[in-house]
Specification:
The chain contains no helices and 6 strands. By secondary structure, it is an all-beta fold. The chain has a single domain, classed as Thrombin, subunit H, CATH 2.40.10. Strands 1-2-3-6-5-4 form a 6-stranded antiparallel β-barrel. A hairpin with a 6-residue loop joins strand 5 and strand 6. It is globular. The two termini are 19 Å apart.
């Protein structure tokens, strides 16, 4: 299943009052019961919380969900990053 991801990232930092909110777009590489792998143009720190809308092909309505970044790595083609996201909701 392939789709797109529109996410707001709230990376955990030392001081909660200094949290950032970033918007990013990504392409879902794979999805499973516990989470998904997303290809993004930027890295997201491990343990960051990600609020997102999962957009399915042919649908104009997104599925809201909350995820946590478990890992990230440079993509094989070196043009982006792969993010391992775990579903929390």
């Amino acid at each position: 299943m392939h789709g797109s991801l529109l996410a707001r990232v709230d990376p955990a930092q030392k001081h909660k009052a200094q949290r950032q909110k970033l918007s990013l777009r990504g392409e879902t590489q794979n999805i499973a019961r516990g989470g998904m792998c997303v290809l993004s143009d930027r890295p997201v720190p491990t343990d960051s919380l990600v609020r997102c809308e999962l957009m399915l092909a042919g649908s104009s309505v997104g599925i809201p969900t909350l995820l946590q970044v478990r890992w990230f790595q440079k993509a094989i083609d070196k043009t982006g990053f792969r993010l391992g996201l775990q579903f929390l909701l």
